Amino acid sequence: MFIFCLNARADGQNLLANPGFEDINICTEFNAPCSRAGWFMVLKGFRGKLPVKSGERALPFTFENYYAPFKRAFPYSKILCPLLPGKDYKLQVWLYTGKKAFSHLDVLFTLSDPSRLNVRFGKFEYTLRFSLGDIVERRKDGWILLSKNYIPKEKYRYIVIGNLSNDAEAPRNRKEKNLNGGELDFWIDDISLTATDSTWSPCLEYKQTLSQLYDEKRRHTSFASLDEERNKTPTPLWSEKNSLRPVDPVKQDTLIIPGVVFGVNDSKIDAAGKAVLAEFAERIRLLNVKSIRISGHTDDTGTDTLNKVLSLKRAESVAAYLISKLPQLTEHVVTNGYGNKLPAALNDTPENRAKNRRVEIVVSYVELRGLRRNE
Hints:
Blueprint: E1 24-27, E2 32-36, E3 40-43, E4 59-65, E5 73-78, E6 89-96, E7 105-110, E8 128-130, E9 135-138, E10 144-150, E11 158-162, H1 174-178, E12 183-195, H2 206-215, E13 250-258, H3 271-284, E14 288-297, H4 304-325, E15 333-337, H5 350-356, E16 358-366
Parallel strand pairs: 14-15
Antiparallel strand pairs: 1-2, 3-5, 4-12, 5-11, 6-10, 6-12, 7-8, 7-11, 9-10, 13-16, 14-16
């Protein structure tokens, strides 16, 4: 069983990861922040400054381009539990359209990873559409809350958001058309997809799917997908003629540091924790390390803000100790503090809360061919 932070408006457990888009993905291709964790983009990305409805981040996308009407972007994610045919669900999303009057927002539910769909405009059939009648709240800063119920006919696994209309928007005036290269950019925030049935309970793969979404770091690799095709890679550019060596597969080594190595509300590592980290440092010393992702986690005791700060401080404390042992890997280390957003167990007993107080270290590396691990 797994608990995830929910939008306060949700009737039940949110089936969408990172609904407030506060957590950032560190892409493996560049080892740098490049998108919202758990969410992906089909087609064009976004550039420019963005507003937020709450917190520090929202998710921007290109609704349309006045010069190239079908140059659009479609945020998508994997639903944490498959939608059950015949069951009633509620989808809510905060939307900001800037100076553009709201007309519609489309949603497409799919069975497979949307990035592999080969569908041309004119053939799209959106699953549901938000229109003016679906606005349930308006804020003075321009954000609107859209809400709609939906009963699926199939066991959908993915959600896509954007403008699936076959018609092109027209600018009201020349100035609007010239703004930002003709792009019409929208932003979404605090999205929730919940089952309205009070007897509904999370599926067994809820936690596994959530972990998969956060662990998928690739954003610049065209063949990467979240379904059964996700682990297939293109044929390596290799031949006897050019003697190019196939790309070595990236492997991972993981270590979980329990919260007991820290004092209460403290980030200082005790002697036992340092001993474990020293042994781990020796284990990875000779590896061809690509990245070391260190994430701190807490239980649900205390406020979200304090938990996030504490979890980050603990992650940074672990990172500092590892770097002291392996200074050559300094540039490969990335730290995050997730607070109580990604618990390993329910926060219902002292034992389970102890499981949630932890620091996770994930080392991605390439084991060079011809060399043994202990050389």
